[in-house]
Amino acid sequence: MSYRTVVPRGIVISLFLSCISVTHVNANPLGGLLGGDAAKALGGMMGKGKGDSEDQQGSGSALDILGGMKKGSGSSDGDQGRNPLSLIQGAMEANKNSTLGPMGRYYLGRKLSAQVIGLYKPLSIDDPVTRYVRDVVMTVLAASNYAGNYSDPLVIVLDDPGLVNAFAAPGNFVFISTGMLNFVKNEDELAFVLAHEIAHIELDHGLNAIKSKQGADLFKDAAGDVVAGMGGLFDAMENGFSADLEGEADRRGAELVALAGYDPNAGVAVIERLEKLQGRKHGTGYPADRRSAVERVAASHSPVSSDKVNKRAERFNAKLSQ
Amino acid sequence: MSVFPKMWPLCLVFSSFSAIAFERINEGDTVYVACESLTVYEKPTAFSKVVRSYKFGDKLNVTGLKQVFPLPATDFSSKKFLEKREKEDAAREERRPQPIPEEKYMRAAWLQLKDGYGAASCLVKQDLFSSQTEEEVLKRVEALASGKAKRNFSEDESGDMTAMRGAAGKAKGGKADYETIDKLANAVKGTFNLDAHNQFRQQGSLGEYQ
Fold first, then answer.
1. Please, where are the H alpha helices in chain B?
2. Which chain A residue has its CA at the smallest distance from B104's CA?
3. Which of B87, B197, B206, B210 to mutate to test the interface with A (most CBs of A within 10 A)?
4. What sign does the dihedral B64-B69-B75-B81 (CA atoms) show?
């Protein structure tokens, strides 16, 4: 079957665009809401990191004071979601649960990927197209800071020509649709699409999204009905901040392809076409100007000869025509 | 009653979240292989010659840090995030903000070991390694996915897709198909052919062949 001859139709879920939609919380709004004695108490609790365990900064001291909090909490079980003690416990539990390590990341990715597979039919792992995409993924991964993974990276091609999409999950589960394979014009463009996804993994955006979501949920619990007008803040958490992360993934993705030897300018080309395809400049939660960041990365690396790009384009066409 | 006293514990959530994708590791630390296997390379790059491999649980000593990089601005342990916190702390405590030491927001991509270089993303310290059991990580993953602190793991439900939505949050997961995903993961295990992959890179002028 030739994947190059099928015209994409139907849903065009924006590219990389897909991927990991992020809700990143800026601590400022929360900080701004804190004041007076509450903020002082918090400052004392959080303090600075003690000893070598900077990664768990604040947790230990917060746990130390839990005993004291218990005495004064005086809340009934029925108000569990809103009393300070349960919130602290929830926060501690959330922190523990988001400390996953390589195995935990893999299992988180497996859970998410199982749901994707529940929706789409994958090509065989032995399909030449899957093997080819896997080679591109492995090349980009080798250039990343995340060269080690709990298990072998799993690259899955979703057999849906109407879907123009690629996404990734923690633990190096990378998905791309046949619609996206039809959409990209050469191997360098394909590499950029995949590198954007790999950047999300390397930069830990998926888990950050979950952490932020947890924070937002706990915040909602704390605010309860009292702060009914805080919806805007949650909207910002859900949508507004994700532009930062998508911009970060664009920039890092361009760096990864450049490090691997691909032409980062291919990223500019594919972004331009995707924006046209979507019929609007960019999707919700994406930077207003996606191209500049990629162009800056391209300008900071040695130009890639068109001969090399063309040579790779030939094998791209050959592989996808099989 | 003011809402603020009710909400202050929430700051714990954001302050205690940390960058565990890359644990902070120092020269001289003892680390454990937390991946099924760890490939050791001749140089701190996966584009170099493979020296050997270690298996899950092997204990190693770190003799150096290579390719040290700053955590991304959006990370909870990034320089930007830590500076913001320090500024807020300093304002509350009526003091000058202190500079953030580099080691707090810098991480190493590669760790020098006695016989080569291993990817830091597969090496963790003892505390984190002790949580690397299937039972424990499944419990944590399910708690994360459900958004609740404690919940038993179930493979039948459609969980939270926060970490992998489509554009504008429109893509939704279907019924989780663990059987297929595990089948695919097992099928790919051990099939990576380094020689063939090297040939792919060489033919494409990529990696070490660019």
1. 4-7, 10-16, 79-92, 102-105, 126-129, 134-146, 178-188, 194-203
2. A54
3. B206
4. positive
pLDDT in tens, B153-188: 333 333 333 334 333 334 445 688 999 999 999 999
Distance CA A275, CA A24 (A): 24
Q: Which run of H or E residues covers position B37?
A: strand B37-41
Structural contact between residues A169 and A109, judged by C-beta atoms closer than 8 angstroms: yes
Look at B184 and A117 and tell me if their CB atoms are within 8 Å: yes
Is B45:B207 a contact under the CB 8 Å cutoff? no
Q: Are A178 and A159 in contact (CB under 8 A)?
A: yes
pLDDT for A214 equals: 60
Say if the Cβ atoms of A36 and B76 lie within 8 Å.
no
pTM of the shown model: 0.75
Nearest residue of A to residue B146, measured between CA atoms: A214
The sign of the CA dihedral A240, A245, A249, A251 is positive
Average pLDDT over residues B67-84: 88
What is the C-alpha to C-alpha distance for residues B108 and A259, in angstroms, rounded to an integer?
17
CA distance B14 to chain A (A): 7
Do B144 and A210 make contact, defined as CB atoms within 8 angstroms? Answer: yes
Looking at the predicted structure, is the pLDDT value of residue A126 above 60? yes
Residues of A in contact with B143 (CB under 8 A): 93, 97
CB A119 within 8 A of CB B173: yes
Distance (Å) from the C-alpha of residue A228 to the closest C-alpha of chain B?
Answer: 11
| ipTM confidence | 0.82
Nearest Cα neighbor of B11 from A222, A149, A206, A175 is A222
The span from the CA of A101 to the CA of B33, in Å, is 11
Helices A128-143 and B194-203 pack at an angle, to 10 degrees, of: 80
Contact at CB, B128 and A101, closer than 8 angstroms: yes
Q: Is the pLDDT of residue A80 over 70?
A: no
Q: Which of B18, B47, B155 sits opposite A56 (nearest CB)?
A: B18
Contact call for A147 and B119, based on CB within 8 A = yes
In angstroms, the Cα distances linking A111 to A11, A167, A276, B84 are: 24, 14, 33, 34
Banded pLDDT at A78 (limits 50, 70, 90): very low
Question: What single string gives the DSSP state of each residue in A143-207?
Answer: HSS----SS--EEEEE--TT---EEEETTTEEEEEHHHHHH--SHHHHHHHHHHHHHHHHTTHHH
Tell me the CB-side half-sphere exposure of residue A122, using CA atoms within 13 A. 27
